[in-house]
Amino acid sequence: MLNTDVPTTFENLELPTNILSTLTALGYEHPTPVQAASIPHLLTGNDLLGHAPTGTGKTAAFSLPLLARVDPTKNTTQVLVLAPTRELAIQVTAAMKQYGADLKGLKTLSIYGGQDYGPQLQQLRAGQHVVVGTPGRVMDHIRRGTLKLDALEALVLDEADEMLKMGFLEDVEWILEQTPDTRQMALFSATMPREIKRIATRFMKSPETVSIKALSGAKAMINQRYSIMAAKEKPEALQKLLNFEAFDAVLIFVRTKVQTESLAELVHKNGHRVAAIHGDLAQSQREQIIKRLSKGQLDIVVATDVAARGLDVERISHVINFDAPHDAETYVHRIGRTGRAGRSGEAIIFLNKREERLIRGLERETQNKLTQYHLPTAAMIRQKQLTDFAATLKTAVEAGPREDLIEVIDRIANELETDHLTIAAVMASQLLPERSTGNRKTSATESSRPQTKERSRPQSTAADAPPPAPKSQPGFSPSKGKAIFRIEVGHDQSVEPGEIVGAIANEGGLNGKEIGQIQIFADHTLLELPNALPRTVFVTLKNVWIRGRRLSIHRLDAEQANAQRERSKKSPRAVKTAARGKPKPAWQKDNARPAPRRERSTAKPTEARAPKKTIKRRAPKPAAS
């Protein structure tokens, strides 16, 4: 076991000057324990077995020394990093590009499933010094002969225990068998099950061992709390928490992909910018959500465990375990999304009475105390809201008043014969509802300026009331041969018309000219598509995602027809009309193809259905003797 005392600076680790200059520019001063223990051994070419959980800085622990040994003048793959998920592969690639910014000519590539082979093949043929990938896609390229490992200098298995859980163990062993015996190897894992130890014994040469305890160096920076409640009380508890806690960005964990969507919808109704991320999302959509979260265009992400792997966003100040994890190791991975590399963070877990026994195990795993979190009362939320509003208003006033607005307020005061203080209170009541819808950390300038239409979101919706229903009537009539369709994405997702046209044209196989007028509302969009839209295209478009939301497309005219039929059922004249026969629905006119099955009209109660014929099967003749 090695001593993991942290040296004073990175200079003590004998890294080359071009990497040290990059670290200085990035503001890195002191290495974490796993970096201090790992870098010297990897610099000298030794194999390394690292027992370290997520959030301890292990990406830099293997990236810095291996990049220091890369020779950019050789157009060969010298470093291969295997990661369990696409998100982690992207994260590691971005980090290595950042650390190697001053290494002239360095080429780094990430390869993973769900990505087109074309660009990957083109870049691999051009030569890549560092390749980071998931096991399945790496295997594909090795078999194709497009990823050559003859000159490989070093190989890294990152989060090896996660690869084991996801069933990649045999793939990893096959890849290791294709690498040169002379290559260096580093293996990092939060836990050390016997299968991982077997890989280390078989493929590593006298590895040095570095063991970092769970959340070591960062555990004091994560304030861990728990709250006991019944399952049905969780949604309201979450709303209270988000209304009271001063957060920058929040990651909420649930168990299933269905829950990510339903909980994201609930949080959105409470006035927050939120997106769901789960395994069914295309990789480009996941990347877009993570990018928006990083840039501050989203405040909350609801995710499953698998979808959140590799999600490292500095803004995440809170991790909320809406559902308890299956084991303590998963809990460590979850809360590791905050408080990373010395940053502070908050971790809150919702438990029911039967799950209260898990607390002791979580404390043992994290070596930290979990304190009870008492949900805020309505009075506490209101007081917090008033305090934040007063601070924002004070900052805005100090920035200076607008003369034209002063004249307007003065004129109103004279006309109504009231004082300016009353007018100010009325204006404040319009900005500050009786109940809070959110308590995101917001700058004074952002709070004082009106929101644009593109980024509008609910501001004054009560926590227990849904937002007002948006208008669904289009401001245009469908052109000849076209019908109006509705998709469930709008200004709240900052969607642009070009994104809608591109997604529908690419995924549905439509010509851009077949897409007519587009009208974007807050939470949905109306657009023109061919009246004779093929059913296969319609079904495909239902499952297309834009900006983290499923389109769930449906025809507006069919929706109105259904409503009309429901009204007609209640009318006495409906019986006579049904007996005479029904007029053809809109989708049957103009040689249109049949509408999707779910939108066809159902039979009226007054329409008699012919009984099904009973077919008697004859007994088979006996075989000839």
What does this structure look like?
The protein is of the alpha/beta class and 625 residues long. It has four domains: 202 residues, 3-Layer(aba) Sandwich (Rossmann fold), CATH 3.40.50; 154 residues, P-loop containing nucleotide triphosphate hydrolases (Rossmann fold, 3-Layer(aba) Sandwich); 78 residues, no CATH class; 131 residues, RRM (RNA recognition motif) domain (Alpha-Beta Plaits, 2-Layer Sandwich), CATH 3.30.70.330. It is 38% helix and 14% strand. It is built from 22 helices and 20 strands. It has a seven-stranded parallel β-sheet with strand order 3-4-2-5-6-1-7, with helices on both faces. Strands 10-11-9-12-13-8-14 form a seven-stranded parallel β-sheet. The chain has a four-stranded antiparallel β-sheet with strand order 16-17-15-20. Strand 12, helix 13 and strand 13 form a beta-alpha-beta unit. Helix 6 runs parallel beside helix 8. It is globular and about 85 Å long. The chain starts with 16 loop residues before the first helix and ends in a 45-residue tail after the last helix. The N terminus is likely disordered.
